[in-house]
Amino acid sequence: MSANEKYQLQGINHLALVCADMQRTIDFYSGVLGMPLIKTIELPGDMGQHFFFDCGGGNCIAFFWLATAPDGVPGVSAPAGLPDEGELNSATGSMNHVAFSVPPEKFDEYYARFKAEGVKVSHILNHDDSKYGVSREPHEGTFVRSFYFTGPDGELLEFACWTKTFTEADVVHEPRTAADRKVPVSS
C-alpha cells in the first residue's frame, strides 16, 4: 500500500448516515453489533440528533436522526451544499458525509492548504454542546474540529479531529423515533 505524501490521513473519523428511528439504530448497532454508544448530540432548533458509535480502531460510525428527513429515494445521496450554508438534510438510509480523521496539530495547516489550492471549503466548525452546536473559536467544551468540502459528484466530505475524550456523561439524549418525524412516513 502506498503512503499519502500530501496529507497525513489517519483513516475514517466517522461515517455519518441518516436513520428514521434512533432507538432502532441503537438497538442494532449497540445491541446486535456490540458497538458502544459514545456520544449523543441534540441538534439546535429541534432539527434532530447525531449519535456516535465506536466501531473499533479509533473509528466511529454515526447516525443523524433528522426531523424533516425525507424517506430514502434512489439518487438522493447527499446534502445539496455545505453545513455552514445551512445544508444538512439527506434522505433516510443515505450517506450524509464521510469524515476523514486528521491529526489535530495538522488541522489548521490542512484547512489553509485547501483554501490555497482553491478548494471550496466550509468555515471551520468547532463542534461543542452549546445551543447552536458550534463556536467560532475552539474552547474547553469543543469535542471535534472540522471543515467540509464536496467530492466530484457532490458527495459531502469532511476533515475532522477529535479534541476531547468522551465519557458516559456525553450520552445524555433520549433517542428519537419514527413517530417523532415531521414528514409523512410512507407505508
UniProtKB/TrEMBL annotation:
It comes from the Bacteria. InterPro entries: Glyas_Bleomycin-R_OHBP_Dase, Glyas_Fos-R_dOase_dom, GlyoxalaseI/FosfomycinResist, VOC_core. CDD domains: VOC (cd06587). Transmembrane segments: none annotated. Residues 11-162 form the VOC domain. Pfam families: Glyoxalase (PF00903). PANTHER family: GLYOXALASE FAMILY PROTEIN, METALLOTHIOL TRANSFERASE FOSB. This is VOC family protein.
